[in-house]
Amino acid sequence: MVKLVVAGATGLVGSKILETIDRKGIPFDELVLFSSKRSAGQEIEFQGQTYTVQELTEAATDGDFDYVLMSAGGETSKRFAPLFEQHGAIIIDNSSQWRMTEDVDLVVPEVNAPKFTRGIIANPNCSTIQSVVPLKPLQDKYGLKRVAYTTYQAVSGSGMQGKKDLADGAHGAEPKAYPHPIYNNVLPHIDVFLDNGYTKEEQKMIDETRKILNEPTLNVTATCVRVPVQDSHSVHINVTLDQPATVEEIQALFDADPRVVLVDNPANNEYPLAIHSTGRDEVFVGRIRKDDSLDNTFHLWVTSDNLLKGAALNAVQVLEQVLELKGE
Ligand SMILES: NC(=O)c1ccc[n+]([C@@H]2O[C@H](COP(=O)([O-])OP(=O)(O)OC[C@H]3O[C@@H](n4cnc5c(N)ncnc54)[C@H](OP(=O)(O)O)[C@@H]3O)[C@@H](O)[C@H]2O)c1
């Protein structure tokens, strides 16, 4: 008897989690949906049944749950994930709250697996997930010396309000999710600024890349940018390898690797695009070029749907991985 919870079921990521659970045929006997007080009572149709969304409270965490998929913000995860954990559940959390906690696993199933030191497993940052998927085969074959990211992140990465700010901004409305208009603009600012001048989003990419790839001293840097695109993040990766390689070898490596889709035919204007990634599960990689300004260095252009591989799909894949590891 598997009791499954989706907490944050009324949000952008939560609704994609439900779609993905359905699409992948994840087995469960009972499903419970939580939101905040705001949406409690809302009815959600799922697999031919009507579910009434319940308010997430401390008492509600004691429901004999097995698996909890949380996408309800950092503060909610901070408060409720340990309570679900105390009551014996495994929590797969989409917020950034637990990602860098030492005994919490940070998992991208194509790259690593949970060790189950704790009941909480963290789903990484969206841009980090789609970046480590192509970095992993490079790490295994050539070794990594340095990674420099520049991201072009869609407004759906800021939840419902981000999408609303882009749509309403076209009619002159003031933004609510951002300090400046996102419509017709580009913001070199995602999440709060830290004392080192980086944003928290940039620091997350740096720290999480090291943790997932299990290379605590890897040289990583990042610049994270919000662009007026509805869905799918694009990431430019400048990667320096330990060993020499050619563009053709890297293309062949990606072409043979089921974890990524190679789209790299510039002569035909074919390269990964945000609009082609939206609604797709895959991580797309292309524009592979040698960076002649540094030894063993290459440029990659990587796109993926931030709500799917960057959030909901990765969380459901972690659940599948957990079910398999636990033999369920
Ligand atoms: N969007 C992305 O691309 C993305 C990617 C990776 C990770 N994430 C993370 O996933 C989480 C959700 O993001 P989102 O984009 O889905 O945001 P969203 O569309 O704003 O949805 C937020 C969800 O959390 C619920 N919630 C808020 N406060 C709550 C509380 N106190 N108790 C219970 N539920 C509460 C909301 O319920 P109500 O309907 O009642 O407000 C709603 O269901 C965030 O932690 C975000 O950082 C998002």
TrEMBL record:
InterPro entries: Asp_semialdehyde_DH (IPR012080), Asp_semialdehyde_DH_beta (IPR005986), NAD(P)-bd_dom_sf (IPR036291), Semialdehyde_DH_NAD-bd (IPR000534), Semialdhyde_DH_dimer_dom (IPR012280). The active site is at C126 (acyl-thioester intermediate), H233 (proton acceptor). It holds the Pfam family Semialdhyde_dh. Residues 3-119 form the Semialdehyde dehydrogenase NAD-binding domain. It comes from the Bacteria. It is an enzyme of class 1 (oxidoreductase). SMART domains: Semialdhyde_dh (SM00859). NADP(+) binds at T10, G11, L12, V13, R38, S39, S156, G157, N306. CDD domains: ASADH_C_bac_euk_like (cd18131), VcASADH2_like_N (cd02316). Pathway: Amino-acid biosynthesis; L-methionine biosynthesis via de novo pathway; L-homoserine from L-aspartate: step 2/3; Amino-acid biosynthesis; L-threonine biosynthesis; L-threonine from L-aspartate: step 2/5; Amino-acid biosynthesis; L-lysine biosynthesis via DAP pathway; (S)-tetrahydrodipicolinate from L-aspartate: step 2/4. The keyword Transmembrane does not apply. Its EC number is 1.2.1.11. GO terms for biological process: 'de novo' L-methionine biosynthetic process; diaminopimelate biosynthetic process; isoleucine biosynthetic process; lysine biosynthetic process via diaminopimelate; threonine biosynthetic process. Phosphate binds at R99. One of its GO terms (molecular function) is NAD binding. It catalyses: L-aspartate 4-semialdehyde + phosphate + NADP(+) = 4-phospho-L-aspartate + NADPH + H(+). Keywords: Amino-acid biosynthesis, Diaminopimelate biosynthesis, Lysine biosynthesis, Methionine biosynthesis, NADP, Oxidoreductase, Threonine biosynthesis. Catalyzes the NADPH-dependent formation of L-aspartate-semialdehyde (L-ASA) by the reductive dephosphorylation of L-aspartyl-4-phosphate. Homodimer. Belongs to the aspartate-semialdehyde dehydrogenase family. This is Aspartate-semialdehyde dehydrogenase. It comes from Staphylococcus rostri. The lineage of its organism: Bacteria, Bacillati, Bacillota, Bacilli, Bacillales.
